[in-house]
Amino acid sequence: MERSSPRHLIGRFRRKLEKLGPSQTAHLMLVRLLDRFSLFKILRGVLLVKVDPAFLDCPPHLTPGFLDESRLWQLARDPENALDASFLNEALAKGDRCYAILDGERLAAYGWYSRQPTRIDPPELLLGFDAGYVYMYKGLTRHEYRGQRLHAIGMNRALQHYLEQGAKGLVSYVESTNVDSLKSCFRLGYRQFGSIYLWRVFGHYLRLYSPACRRYGFSLQAAEPRSDGWGARKA
């Protein structure tokens, strides 16, 4: 097929090279090559400690704020909101909160915030962090609301709330191969502070941390499998 022809592959490589440059292209190729044989990821830890006033005003026809449990279960009925029961049960049980932007009764965007170690991908691992920070994860903007900076607005408003409550800031991670997301984080004011190198070998996870991870308590630990089986270790 033409899509797998040498000409097509060379064209893809050239486009990557032009977009990312030689260093980032080589990194992307190496990580994906290692991941073909066994799960391999590099998690870039990022930190946001200052509110950007440019991302605080919400469009007047939309309503921002933290959602209560009953509203979350209502929104979970729509599969496009990516709020399945197993996720909600675990997130709510550990006190995680969802800061959302609503268009009437419809969800426009949301992000989740946790003060506790939180399950990542792969789901048999939890990400831990310094208790002074809040972990931001699982951001979503519905397709029809993209281009309105809702992710940035929701995140800055949530950060403002947590700073007022005494938190030091938000922490999160982005996989090193997700170049667009990393660039987006940097545009929003995040800075990178460290990396976790994760490799699964014969069913066991090897973890290597850059020095700054210790300062922010940024680490991975084994998670208990969920009662529904999600997150159980696979052979």
Describe, in plain words, how this protein is organized in 3D.
The chain has 2 domains: 1-37; 41-222, Aminopeptidase, CATH 3.40.630. It is 32% helix and 31% strand. It contains 6 helices and 11 strands. The protein has an 8-stranded mixed β-sheet. Strand 3 (97-103) and strand 4 (106-114) form a beta hairpin. Residues 229-235 have low confidence and may be disordered.
Structural class: alpha+beta
The residue-averaged pLDDT reads 89
Q: Say which CATH homologous superfamily of the largest domain is assigned.
A: Gcn5-related N-acetyltransferase (GNAT)
Report the CATH architecture of the largest domain: 3-Layer(aba) Sandwich
**Rg on CA atoms, Å:** 19 Å
Annotation, overall tally of beta strands: 11
Distance between the first and last residues' Cα: 34 Å
Helix fraction bin: 25-40%
Strand order in space, largest sheet: 2-3-4-7-8-1-9-10
Main sheet? 8 strands, mixed
> What is the N-to-C order of secondary-structure elements (H for helix, E for strand)?
HEEHHEEEEEHEHEEHE
CATH T-level fold name of the largest domain: Aminopeptidase
Can you identify the CATH class of the largest domain? Alpha Beta
Uncertain runs with pLDDT below 50, 5 residues or more? 229-235
Count helical runs: 6
Q: Proportion of β residues?
A: 25-35%
In total, the number of domains comes to 2
Shape assignment: globular
Protein name: GNAT family acetyltransferase
Domain N-acetyltransferase: 60-207
Keywords: Transferase
InterPro entries: Acyl_CoA_acyltransferase (IPR016181), GNAT_dom (IPR000182)
